[in-house]
Amino acid sequence: MESTVNKGTTYIVLPPSTQAHRIRILVVDQDESVLKLALRLLTVEGYEVDTAKDPVLALEKTKKTNYDILLADVRFPKMEVLVLAESTRQTNPHISILFMAEPAILETAKQSVKMGGCDLITKPLDPKKLLQTVKKALSHKLEDTRIASAKELGYLAQLEDVILKTGDKKSISKISLGFALSCVSAESGIFFYRSKDSKSLLLTFGSILQEKKFEVFEVPLDNNLAWPSKDPKEIIQSSQPEKLPVLPYLLEQQSTLPWINHFCEPNTAFLYIPVTFTQTDMSAMVIRLRPWTNEIKDYEKNLLYLDARFTALSLANLDLLNASKLAHKETQYLHEQNIELERLTCKQVAVAEVSYELNNLISSILAQLNFLEKELNSQKPDLARKHLAMTKETIKSTNFFSKSLELEKRAPSVKEPCHFNSILEEIVSYAQIQSKFNNLEIVKSLEPDLPKIDGDITQIKQLFYNLLNNAADAMGKRKGEGGKIFLKTKFDAEGKFIQVEVEDTGIGISPEILPYIFQKPIPTKSGAYGFDLLITKRIVDQHGGTIEIDSKPSQGTVVRLKFPFQKEP
How far apart are the C-alpha atoms of 517 and 431, rounded to whole Å? Predict the structure, then answer.
């Protein structure tokens, strides 16, 4: 659909109308009766027909209208007819030219066909023969158009493939502009693009005059630059470049764009193809047509629009990809910083918790020494020896607390045969001297003849103490409450593993916290952190074992450890 807005400017809206294009035929003959007959026969068939009595008038008509078929008599002076055919083909390369001739000059007419025609019709005109020849010419023309369209679509597919493989915006702009110029045999063109928040236009200039030349420029943008508010599917055809959007602004940038004045010469036909997604993302392609180009075919307009839109989308996607890469890089950096911060936090919490436990042990040592002093003064050697032994055990226990800091440093593990029952007995003996275990019953069910497994004794001690300590905390022993802790060991010969269970009758673990209990330190109601569970999980993993926790709020918790056992050969 076309509507003239002002002199020299025509607006063409895409997509084109769904109505079929009417075939236009120009009949040239000095015989009025022949013109009338051809006009009547062809019009009845639905063709749009114009007539002319001489080649000069016909040539003027071809400059204004893009005809599909030229039907001309060869009785005109030879040069006039050939000039008409040649001139018409320059402006319309796809036109089909048919000649009419009397039988007496048939041989001469055949020579004319060889020099520029497609077919020959003898006179007087036979209606059936005329219509058959016209349909035959249209069939060839349709096939040629189909082949040309297929080639253009093939070029578009190739363009898409090249663009998808091209990683930079400048190359994409050059490739797409070159494709557009070749589609309509244009002499030069520009493509400009501005992404969101960008303060400049990426402008590509291309010319195929003399030698192919493509250049890319960064043009600073004026904040007050107006962008067209029209439908982005609208192609503007104009011979007044100063009235096209953005071009007046580009004309002011001669220092950056020295070729812009020549490109925007007045009285030259331009196609302006805008592609605007939002008010901030804008791009357009401007094609400068050759002087003899009269009309651009609908499929050519479609190709130009698809080319411009696909290019703009590709550039926008590249912007998004680059922004995504930057965001990913920043996210990765923040993630690494967060891991480092969490590691440092865990280390600080570990130091705090180990210091707290060491303070407890030191307090216990001082208490035992006070008892020892009193008993020695009261001459009770049996009690003194008992408290001395307990003091030694307490001092020994400080060893594996200091070793927990080495776990954070990931020190190499030294493994040797470990007997879990003996280690548990030892841990229970010096756990019970701490105040948190007072009035707390520890029930042991240790399987006799439990086989030994290779492990780091210091880490295993830390593991079992953490579980006992957590069980005591869960029962609120720091508040003077009582409870029971059940210790169980057993050997599964079939499954080839040793199982250790630590069960308490404490407050249990919240279902919301349970899935994350081995992933990060979790504050407890008492204000402590569950850092020891992270160490516990790490020790189990280092020994190839597994850890499971079953817990119900207000009922208690069962921690189940399984360590693989391999019998020595």
Answer: 24
